[in-house]
Amino acid sequence: MSVSVTTWSLEQTSAGDLRPAGEPPAGVRVVRAEVPSPEFSRYLYAAVGGDLRWTDRLALGRSAWREIVERPGTETWVAYEHGTPAGYLELAGGDDGVVEIVYFGLLPQFRGRRIGGCLLAYGTARAWDLATRWPGRKPTERVWLHTCSLDGEYAMANYERRGFRLFDTRVEEEPDRPAPALWPAP
User: Fold this and answer.
1) pLDDT in tens, 94-144
2) 106 closest CA partner among 124, 88, 120
3) How many whole angstroms separate alpha carbon 62 and alpha carbon 73?
4) Which of 9, 51, 79, 105 falls 20 to 30 Å from 148 in CA-CA distance?
5) Report field, pTM of the whole predicted structure over 0.85
6) Which of 103, 155, 148 is CA-nearest to residue 4?
7) Residue 144 phi, psi dihedral angles, 5° rounding
8) What is d(CA 128, CA 104) in angstroms, rounded to the nearest whole number?
């Protein structure tokens, strides 16, 4: 059995494209995870994407995760609410001035509370100034991402409100997989 999945690719081609979000809710702050940690990155990936059927990295071992998070130009920005991780954004900067927002999302209990817009705006701004933290990198000329019909209900609208523009749409049949279980069945 398969499911039809629409994937939209969006981009900004100038830092001036970024539209800010309002102030973050009280107690919310965004911090870069400066020490690459495969365990922490896998936790964020599973906690945010578990109910959204994020599965492409679940089978990776620790060494593969370490390789990803230690890659030059890769950064993880985490939103915390009163000290609790609420969501994250992963950037992957290329040598060509292109930065991909590889993953972005919130844990289920933090969705729909205005945290996502703030995290996306802040993380996108960090994509635009990535070269200032990575000496020798070409300044960012383009920031892009993709989202799909399986992602959260507010995802596409949030991207558009932050100034991302659609540049490609694809529809593909994918296996209808259940969402990976974060918790064992009761």
Assistant:
1) 999 999 999 999 999 999 999 999 999 999 999 999 999 999 999 999 999
2) 88
3) 19
4) 79
5) yes
6) 148
7) -140, 165
8) 16
